[in-house]
């Protein structure tokens, strides 16, 4: 396929365009007619391919190579709706932070929580070995452990490689995410938290709450 300003044309099909079928909520190739159901628009900011007339977005199937695309309600966090020009793609080592209880750490309105493992930007992180930062893809901010009263709070904040609150060490051998600045402080997920919040806590060698594995995405 080739993405034009207001259509997606088929390279293999002469005068064929990707069209949306509202009755079956699916897409297929039909003769190009400039109709509203063929007027796909690429949003360069959100990296979505949208069909304004139906308010849906194109969806890829990453689990099946060569599978036909589908459509769904546009969602800013859905990875399967993320498209970009191949020339703009930069290889990144994305990870998920998976706990011993098979939940995953995720960001929501700058807070950190643990819940079901979901395939979206809120659950994806990039670890910078240079700056020792953990950046979440949903808002582009970094995990930040800040002094609060007699302890520490945890949220995401604008990434700053010189900010000591944002420096972390991934101890893969012991399945811990340790703070590099604040002594003996670890990322911790308490299953008894009423809001499933992630936090930072004193590091303990055999704590299930602190058993976190970085899983490559």
UniProtKB/TrEMBL annotation:
What the entry lists under Gene3D superfamilies is as follows: 2.80.10.50
Upper lineage: Eukaryota, Sar, Stramenopiles, Oomycota, Saprolegniomycetes
The record's annotation in Pfam families points to: Ricin_B_lectin
Organism, as annotated: Thraustotheca clavata
* Protein name per its UniProtKB record: Ricin B lectin domain-containing protein
**Which InterPro entries does the UniProt record give?**
Ricin_B-like_lectins, Ricin_B_lectin
Please list the residue ranges annotated as the Ricin B lectin domain: 6-215
SUPFAM superfamilies associated with the record: Ricin B-like lectins (SSF50370)
Signal peptide (from-to): none
